[in-house]
Each structure stands twice: as C-alpha cells, then as structure tokens.
Amino acid sequence: MNTAGTIDRPLTHDPKKQAPMKAATSEPAGTATPDFLTTGAYVPRQNRIRKMQLSPEAMARAHMHERLREAEAQRPAERLMAARRMQRRAERASLRARRALAIAVMQ
What we know:
Elements: H1 43-106
C-alpha cells in the first residue's frame, strides 16, 4: 500500500526524505512579503533577531529548571519532617501503652 502522506501525518518525519515544497501556481513567484526585512542585514544582526525571538522560550526553560531544582532540594526536608512527626506519634502511642499496662497491673 503506497499512500502519500499529508501535512498532519507525513510518511516520514525526516525533513531530508520529505518531498520539497512546490510553489503555488495561483501566485507569481516572489510576490509574498517577507516576515521582516533583512536586505543588507549582516549575519550577526540576523542571529541577534533570532536570539531575541527565542529568549522568552529560554527564560521559561530556565525558570522551569530552577523550580525543579527547588522541588528536589525541598523533598529531603519534607521527608525528615514526616519522619519526626511519625516518631512523636509512636512515642505517644508507647506512653499510652505503658500507662494502660501500669493501670492493668495496679488493679
């Protein structure tokens, strides 16, 4: 079965193996306006523009990594607090058991 892929479900995800884009026949070539003018722009300027466009994404990624690091650092403290809470609960239960045994022996 040799069916052609669609835009949503291409045959392959490798861009090198996909068919090249064909120009639309309804519009003459070169009529589309560019996203932003780069005529006469130097390559470093183009890289700066690209970096500025990607900077919010990089900031969000750094923020997420910082939150993950804080969560990882907080986990041992939470475990220690839970262990101390359980230890106090066990000590109270032990005291109640001792008290109940002493009352039973005294009678």
